[in-house]
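Researcher: I'm preparing a figure for a lab meeting and need a structural model of a single chain. I don't have an experimental structure, so a prediction will have to do for now. The sequence is pasted below. Please return the structure as tokens so I can convert it later.
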Amino acid sequence: MKSKNNTLKIVVVTVLVVLTCAYLLPIYVMVTNSLKTLPEIQQRTYLAFPLKPQIQNYSTALFGSREFLIPMKRPIINSTIITLVVTLLAAFFGGLGGYYLSRTRGAFVRFIFILVGIALYLPYQAVIIPLTTITAKSGLANSHFGLILSYLIINLPLSSVLMGTFFLGIPRELEEAAEVDGANKVQIFFRVVTPISLPAYASVAIIIFTQVWNEFFIALTLSTPKTQTAQVAMAMTQGSTISPYNLQMAASLLTVAVPLLIFLFLGRYFIRGILAGALKG
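Model: Understood. Here is the structure written out token by token.
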């Protein structure tokens, strides 16, 4: 039995090491090539470490140059503003909607739940025309608020379902005890339910932030040069006669840095919230 257990451990560790190397290899390639000069890139030695690391590649990718005509500073700022606002609003209103869906019974609530479930599976191509019409008639077209409204409409159903699933696992006795003490529904939600649900809010925030930050189709359709997001700007760095792969890799790492920091900040709550919602739902 001990030999079998040792063999199983060796197999598991070997698989984990191989998978770790497979996941880290693209990151290693991005980091090393972002520090190389253009002649080194043209030699196609992508796995080799740079002879003289070029730290200024990051500033060039951020502020632009003759070799890199699309500076990433404004797109990264635009993506940060849009994504943070959408994440906060989606988590807040999704929490309210999820609490209502998890605590209310009736035909109307079941109908709303069906509509929310349908909205989860609608492709972006199916809603792009209505979103364009809404932003145009509301006067928010070609602005940050137009993109924020569009992403909020798309991500609210997911946020409501995830938060509602977590709320189903919260004992009703806690709310009943607060109600006996004289608290109303609003006080119960913000003072009793919300503090308990912080891991779920963190999980929803990471999921929504990642989805909005990486979204390309809606940003490409509704954005302007002033509201251009990081993903659209990255796509526009290609197509020139000479592709500065070193600067493109530096720009890619700058684009990845913001969601990576968000995940590192909220990551300890992520698995806890997802597992709680999955098991208690």
